[in-house]
Amino acid sequence: MNINITTSLPSGLIIDEANPGWLNKGDNGWELTAATMVGLQSVPGLVILYGSMVKKKWAVNSAFMALYAFASVLICWVLWAYNMSFGSPLISILGKPRQAMTDSVLLTQYRPEYYLPTADHVFYQFAFAAITVILLAGSLLGRMNFYAWMLFVPLWVTLSYTVGAYTIWGSGFLTEHIIDYAGGYVIHLSSGVAGFTAAYWVGPRHSHDRQHFPPNNIINMLGGAGFLWLGWTGFNGGSPLAANRITSLAILNTHVCTATSLLVWLSLDMVVYFKSSVIGAVQGMITGLVCITPGAGIVDTWAAILMGILSGSIPWYTMMVLHKKSAFFQKVDDTLGVFHTHAVAGLLGGILSGLFANPNLLKMYYLTSSQGPGFIYGIMNGKFMSGLCQMGYQVLGALFITVWNVVVTSLICILISRLIQLRLDEDDLEIGDDAVHGEEAYALWADGERDLPLRFRMTPRIPSFCRRPGTHH
């Protein structure tokens, strides 16, 4: 039923309060669609991708980590985190923590330059915050105590994500200077760095899992990857908060860069390893999506192709060559290589956005701020110092996000470790889902009850996730 609230005036005019003059139904409808597409990247996209990309014994736990994070972040977001990211200033890197659930806020115009309600922005930015934490989880699959993860998610969103979002997108000290169209730094660099840092503190997987960790369902993995790729239409298409020309360009650039990156990664696999790896193609797809994100709507399509070539080759080198040779990378067990696919690709995209940003597109997107020009256009237009200054801001933003996430993620992990084990013990790591959740992804034993679940065949003991740190069986 469609119910409109109307008010009759003495003159006989009627005001439709559900459709005020500032509301653009096209922008409003597109933004809600874009936010839903970003949400679908997480649930079911990353739920399916994670549940399929890990060993069978970790399928349930990996998928459930993503599902829990999605729900947990939403509650934190509306109660305090949205205003910490986009509200009134508290300090230069953080807004005041306030709830965002009143009609007087949600139903009013977001900003004078946008023609949609604040509720659209709250929901859209929630989907961004949620996927950031879920991407981070990719570094921790296959060994993190689920109860520790339940504490980690709200703490990290509150203390880390909000700072990056406020500093670059809210009213922070970098907001008027840095180019980050849709989250190359706020989302991808932060998730990659934080995931790698948390992986260090949590510790490695079971030794056998680390050496042999095949995906349990490559077809489902491709399905999850498909949700991720097509959902990126909303990820980058929703950032202008309008259905305008920048939206269309951003969507086209996103898919062009992604396809290019996938093909480059695949080609390198075939040249070096003589096989066309499906997992490699998915990794190349992800690095392309990540790399184009900070510049999707403010670079030309020829630049998007160049970004795809670099995003398919540089992260390939760091993951497939440098990672295997570096003692530093070998020391930290990053399960799905999130550092390479998100931190490296996000940093690359941020730097390349500062290089290729078109000043005309920057004016269309940022409206009143002072970003740009890109370094190449600065040289071409006789504004060398302005372009060089923009590159400096891009580097400064990357340094700030990196340092903040290393420090805060470390403090969060240390705090949680004082309350509960970060990592499951060796017995639970050997069993997997059945030990942690009492459930299995493929319960084939149930066909005729010929065999009992593993949990009923083990000697009764206190599960590790119920024990305080330092206690034993």
Q: Low-confidence segments, ≥5 residues, pLDDT <50?
A: 1-7, 456-460
Q: How many separate helices?
A: 18
CATH fold annotation:
Ammonium transporter fold
Shape: globular
- CATH superfamily placement: Ammonium transporter AmtB like domains
What integer value in Å does the Rg equal?
23 Å
Helix content: 55-70%
Major sheet details: 2 strands, antiparallel
Query: How many beta-strand runs?
Result: 4
Quaternary structure annotation: single chain
What is the C-level CATH assignment?
Mainly Alpha
Q: Indicate the mean pLDDT.
A: 91
Major beta sheet, strand line-up:
1-2
Count of the separate structural domains: 1
The end-to-end span amounts to: 59 Å
Order of helices and strands: EEHHEEHHHHHHHHHHHHHHHH
Characterise this structure.
This protein has 473 residues and is mainly alpha-helical. The protein has a single domain, classed as Orthogonal Bundle (Ammonium transporter fold), CATH 1.10.3430. It is 64% helix and 2% strand. It is built from 18 helices and four strands. The protein has helices at 25-53, 59-86, 103-106, 118-137, 146-168, 184-202, 207-211, 218-237, 245-273, 278-292, 301-325, 327-331, 338-356, 359-366, 375-380, 384-419, 426-431, 433-436, and strands spanning 6-8, 14-16, 89-91, 94-95. The strands form two sheets. The protein has a two-stranded antiparallel sheet with strand order 1-2. Strand 3 and strand 4 (94-95) form a beta hairpin. Helix 9 (245-273) runs antiparallel to helix 10 (278-292). The termini are far apart. The model is unreliable at 1-7 and 456-460 (pLDDT under 50).
